[in-house]
Design a protein that fits this description.
Radius of gyration of chain A: 18 Å
CATH superfamily of chain A: (Glycosyl)asparaginase
Oligomer: homodimer
CATH class of chain A: Alpha Beta
Number of domains of chain A: 1
Structural class of chain A: alpha+beta
Order of helices and strands of chain A: EEEHHEEHEHHEEEEHHHEEEE
Largest interface: A-B, 52 and 52 residues
Chain lengths: ~325, ~325
Amino acid sequence: MAFAMHRFLASAIVLLATPSTASAADWAIAIHGGAGVIERADISAADDAAIRADLAKALDAGTAILKAGGSSTDAVVAAVAALEASPWFNAGVGAVFTSAGTIELDAAMMEGEGRRAGAVTGVKSTLSPIALARTLMDKGPHVFLAGPAADEYAREVGLSQVPNSHFMTERRRKQLNDLRMRNQGASLERPEVRMGTVGAVARDVKGTVAAGTSTGGLTGKSPGRVGDAPLVGAGTLADNRCGAISATGSGEIFIRTRVASQICDAARFGKVPLQKAADTTLAEVLALGGDGGVIVLGPSGDGLFSFNSAGMYRGRASAKGPREIKVYGDE
Amino acid sequence: MAFAMHRFLASAIVLLATPSTASAADWAIAIHGGAGVIERADISAADDAAIRADLAKALDAGTAILKAGGSSTDAVVAAVAALEASPWFNAGVGAVFTSAGTIELDAAMMEGEGRRAGAVTGVKSTLSPIALARTLMDKGPHVFLAGPAADEYAREVGLSQVPNSHFMTERRRKQLNDLRMRNQGASLERPEVRMGTVGAVARDVKGTVAAGTSTGGLTGKSPGRVGDAPLVGAGTLADNRCGAISATGSGEIFIRTRVASQICDAARFGKVPLQKAADTTLAEVLALGGDGGVIVLGPSGDGLFSFNSAGMYRGRASAKGPREIKVYGDE
């Protein structure tokens, strides 16, 4: 397997692409735990190891399902739920705090064969927002629920409920307090306040792709703020005609840029390679003042990471490729 | 000015396209008041006249701004706000009821030069949701606010507040009661329960396009349900590289189909004429079991309506074209 690495001077996009060699029976999965200011000087060896271990646990949870012939949707939910349960990422346990000192979670799930989708925003008490998004995708009738209605729906369908404090960690509370001390509010320009959105993309042996994203959003965000993660075509997209995409970054700019849609559509309508489509779209994000990254899995299972931030927690595995876990931009 | 009308047997898409002849100084605007089961047998002559008069009022409000050299954003807000104030459409006054007997309003605004956007969902007390979306677009820091946070933001910036009952009409309450009598819940297959979303697209003399959409959603919807209208790339999109789009129809399916994004991107990346891009996308909506319509204004001011429902409340005007107000599919 050959990898091409491009680092552009202007945008510092790092791209790791696998050539398209997958057969119909190939499975593949890629995960991310957020992109941002991730540098060796800021992360101790012990933390680095713990983060990689939790990334591996999530990757392996999805991989086991795909290897056994399970669906890409099941694999994505398993991987994202594992990342939600880890305190290291900004989703589920360890999510960032709103300006009100609460935690409000967003998630979306989509599968690429029937282009079914489920999405939630403002979740406060449902243990796994990605499981909730998936249930909404399967059972409907609506695709997207906001606020208390999302948790109510979860209770009605029997999904585990927890107090909002279940998601809170001291590290994230300190981030909110630091922000308050500086009296800055939710500055969208500070990448460290929103690092850690999680996501997964997968392709199963039947050839169906799926994508899922889960996040606490932005430290100090206004309660009720909706980011790109739960928006089909912004932070999350699966369409067998172009692939599966999960994004992490400056949510407001990712919405305006329709990141996942532009990547999918440049490939599908413009016949642009997914790698170039992801590059170009993230360059557009950068031009509008944002940063972040995406994981993309093409219809034939070729996977790529693209980000214009210093690092991105990421991993991938496939029927034919190596199992990789990476953190820094230069890995 | 020549018009081409296509009526496809399978999808009954009606398309009215103006050839691209606009110069840099041309302005153009198109509006809609929803697509659905709109047939002569169901609408009295008096109601027909009243509906057309309110469409004309909205169209003229936007036109006056564009003629005076105003921005496409101002024109769209003026046109949509006029439709919100009319009891005939499912936005603002006259919006449909949720299953809880409340009214929850969604809106989005986007301008195509800087691709700035603002969106709200679950608005209960702000007189003009489109004005709120526009303020969010201008002032931020967030792009998208859900639930009580949206109304709180509106109060903070001084936008007019009204009791939720201000939006309620007997006609819509009866629609909810009829639905309850039939014990059907919010059946997404019943087009008449969601007719009347409003929207506008405009191009100003500087060549910037803008789009805005405002709606009460679906009769009997779950509180907290988010439809396509407030989602950038689903129900609303403006991008000077492809045009401005506002949609109305089966919200859940419009989200999954990313209607506005696909139309824009097929034109931009695939070099498909906007007319064909809109047709093809609405055919995809139909294939997934949905229906509805879009209004589209290309970068050079060429405007088109496309819908696969029996009728669509619509109007348009431009520097060079006629002023038109239409209701039925065969007009």
